[in-house]
Specification:
Strand content: 15-25%
Helix content: 25-40%
Number of strands: 6
Radius of gyration: 15 Å
CATH architecture: 3-Layer(aba) Sandwich
CATH class: Alpha Beta
Structural class: alpha/beta
Oligomer: single chain
Number of domains: 1
Order of helices and strands: EHEHHEHEEHE
């Protein structure tokens, strides 16, 4: 069986952008310098694929791709393999529902991390790295994400 590349589920607001804006937030994108550095470190250290789980996917990926390019994150842009699906809003889907749907649709079994400021309540909690809107992605959280992607629990593995 071929080993799957680890997958990072990436939110943007509250991870790459902070609220209220920090002193190091870029005026055009709102990305902070520390979040850009953290994402660069994650991608360089793990060779992960990226699935966008942010509401930014609803506006189209062009805006996100331009922001990543602007910040020198072309390598992260090249690692994006898709986005979580937009589920019927009548069902009031959660971020976790969207990620579960992607995992199921892709029959994913492997290492992963969910980088998000929205608390996951269900089975995906062991893979979450929780950020905070006021801080975004910090160096310690980037390190925790790297550990999950490189040596964390394997999703879909039965014990």
């Amino acid at each position: 069986m071929k080993k799957q590349r680890p997958v990072l589920f990436l939110d943007i607001d509250g991870v790459m952008r902070v609220f209220p804006s920090a002193a190091d937030s870029h005026p055009e994108t709102g990305f902070t310098a520390r979040s850009v550095s953290g994402l660069q470190e994650i991608v360089a250290s793990t060779a992960c694929a990226i699935v966008v789980s942010s509401t930014w996917r609803e506006e189209g990926m062009d805006i996100l791709n331009r922001a990543l390019e602007f910040h020198g994150l072309g390598i992260a842009k090249s690692r994006i393999i898709g986005a979580t699906p937009l589920l019927d809003s009548a069902d009031k889907p959660t971020r976790e529902d969207e990620i579960d749907c992607w995992l199921s649709d892709h029959r994913f079994k492997g290492r992963m991390a969910v980088l998000d400021d929205e608390i996951l309540e269900g089975d995906l909690r062991p893979w979450q790295v929780l950020t905070f809107q006021e801080m975004g992605l910090t160096a310690p959280l980037a390190e925790k994400t790297i550990q999950l992607l490189n040596s964390g629990p394997v999703f879909g593995q039965r014990f």
